[in-house]
């Protein structure tokens, strides 16, 4: 490995050159040094990954063919960094097909051999300009809209999500955000709010499963003095209090049917009637709903009103589970780790390749939230700056606790007399008990571990006759 700095001490940017031919490395070093860039050159994918792990690289120029390795591996390693550099690939003359494919994976551009020096110089300049602009935009978003810098994802599925966010942000149409627990539905709702004309107005998230029916209506629509015991003053509901801002109805699938009827009318008329009042008050807030349930199935089951479903389902934005976001796991893990490094005052924290490999292969039933918690656990418990596999939970390392291991056995279709319903009930009960024990009896935490809403978790406990002490209740014994 060699490092060369230009005459202005590399102030124009740090470039990593990856090529297994010494003559090409030396040629590119000299060419880029004359332009005032700081240059590090290496001959292999492994060496390139080592340099990228240290951060500080603004641009990678890599040959597509690297002996037994590939420039695509360098590209993926670069894209996995939380502050990923741009990547330019060099390919043999007349064979650009693979490089074009690499651009679909996120490469900035490619250049064919033999290349013109001026062509390469302009390409490097434009690539670095793009990265500078990307960093400036990211910094501006972070300052103006704290929390949105967590909108990380370069997979095709997430790029489609963010493209739709940009399209709907400036409108007023109701948006329904769907996806499993932990996929980032509130983050997306907040992004829609922040990228539109309402960004300077309030964003008020509200959990529809957290309150009983009466309190739920009071919180959403407001109440007047004397409407119920404890209503000592008039109070505006969230829809009015938000003004021209946005109200997010989280877990809308958990809303009681009686409240669904009232919400439908409110959305149709754009007016609320506070509890205990005969007068209607207009409101201007945009409504974004979110749920981890399949509302179509809930409608068929009679648990959700069909007319409200169509009112909310003007624009649907479905978030993919983390297991379907190929390539985003390492990117997210490194992003969360970089944030933690700053908070903990440990700038040298980094994952070993083995650790990232284990994370990439894990299905993450708790999605992005589970990954974030896992990274925090690893960073907090590790005595070393290099986070190895031992910092991960046993389940990720393949050493699953028997209490929460998926049920194993013969395939149901090959077992005579197999009772699927009984098998599923028994499995569900074991998971509920294991989650409660792991959460120390805290139901909200246990619900999170299983990716369930609190109301759904509480319902399942009752269904199996489980009380707080995890023993069958009298109703179940009857």
UniProtKB/TrEMBL annotation:
InterPro entries listed in its UniProt record: AAA+_ATPase, AAA_lid_NorR, CheY-like_superfamily, Homeodomain-like_sf, HTH_Fis, P-loop_NTPase, Sig_transdc_resp-reg_receiver, Sigma_54_int
Name assigned to this protein: Pilin regulatory protein PilR
Keyword Nucleotide-binding set for record: yes
PANTHER family from the UniProt entry: ALGINATE BIOSYNTHESIS TRANSCRIPTIONAL REGULATORY PROTEIN ALGB, TRANSCRIPTIONAL REGULATORY PROTEIN
PROSITE patterns: RESPONSE_REGULATORY (PS50110), SIGMA54_INTERACT_1 (PS00675), SIGMA54_INTERACT_3 (PS00688), SIGMA54_INTERACT_4 (PS50045)
GO molecular function: ATP binding; sequence-specific DNA binding
SUPFAM superfamilies, A to Z: CheY-like (SSF52172), Homeodomain-like (SSF46689), P-loop containing nucleoside triphosphate hydrolases (SSF52540)
Lineage: Bacteria, Pseudomonadati, Myxococcota, Myxococcia, Myxococcales
């Amino acid at each position: 490995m060699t490092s060369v700095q230009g005459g202005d001490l590399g102030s124009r940017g740090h470039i990593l050159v990856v090529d297994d031919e010494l003559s090409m490395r030396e040629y590119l070093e000299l060419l880029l040094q004359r332009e005032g860039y700081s240059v590090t050159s290496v001959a292999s994918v492994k060496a390139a990954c080592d340099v990228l792990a240290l951060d500080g690289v603004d641009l990678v120029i890599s040959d597509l063919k690297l002996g037994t390795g590939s420039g695509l591996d360098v590209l993926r390693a670069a894209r996995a960094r939380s502050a990923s550099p741009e990547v330019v690939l060099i390919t043999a003359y007349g064979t650009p097909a693979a490089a074009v494919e690499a651009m679909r994976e996120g490469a900035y551009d490619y250049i064919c051999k033999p290349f013109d020096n001026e062509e390469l110089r302009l390409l490097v300049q434009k690539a670095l300009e793009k990265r500078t602009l990307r960093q400036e935009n990211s910094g501006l978003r972070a300052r103006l809209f704290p929390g949105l810098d967590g909108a990380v994802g370069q997979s095709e599925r997430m790029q489609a999500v963010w493209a739709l966010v940009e399209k709907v942000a400036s409108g007023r149409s109701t948006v329904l955000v769907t996806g499993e627990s932990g996929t980032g539905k509130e983050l997306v709702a907040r992004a829609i709010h922040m990228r539109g004309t309402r960004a300077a107005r309030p964003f008020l998230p509200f959990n529809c499963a957290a309150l009983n029916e009466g309190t739920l209506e009071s919180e959403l629509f407001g109440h007047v003095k004397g409407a119920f015991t404890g209503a000592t003053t008039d109070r505006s509901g969230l829809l009015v209090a938000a003004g021209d801002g946005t109200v997010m109805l989280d877990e809308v699938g958990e809303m009681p049917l009686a409240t669904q009827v009232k919400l439908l009318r409110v959305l149709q008329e754009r007016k609320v009637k506070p509890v205990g009042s005969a007068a209607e008050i207009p409101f201007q807030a945009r409504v974004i709903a979110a749920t981890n349930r399949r509302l179509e199935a809930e409608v068929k089951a009679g648990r959700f009103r069909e007319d409200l479903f169509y009112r909310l389902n003007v624009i649907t934005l479905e978030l993919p589970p983390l297991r379907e976001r190929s390539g985003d796991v390492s990117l997210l893990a490194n992003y969360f780790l970089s944030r933690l490094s700053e908070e903990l005052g440990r700038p040298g924290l980094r994952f070993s390749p083995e650790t990232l490999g284990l994370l990439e292969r894990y299905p993450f039933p708790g999605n992005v939230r589970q990954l974030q918690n896992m990274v925090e656990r690893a960073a907090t418990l590790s005595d070393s700056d290099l986070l190895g596999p031992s910092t991960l939970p046993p389940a990720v390392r393949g050493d699953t606790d028997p209490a929460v291991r998926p049920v194993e056995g013969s395939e149901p279709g090959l077992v005579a007399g197999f009772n699927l319903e009984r098998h599923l009930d028994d499995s569900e009960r074991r998971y509920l008990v294991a989650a409660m024990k792991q959460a120390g009896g805290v139901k909200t935490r246990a619900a999170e571990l299983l990716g369930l809403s609190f109301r759904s978790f509480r319902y399942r406990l009752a269904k199996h006759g489980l009380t707080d002490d995890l023993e069958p209740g009298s109703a179940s014994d009857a």
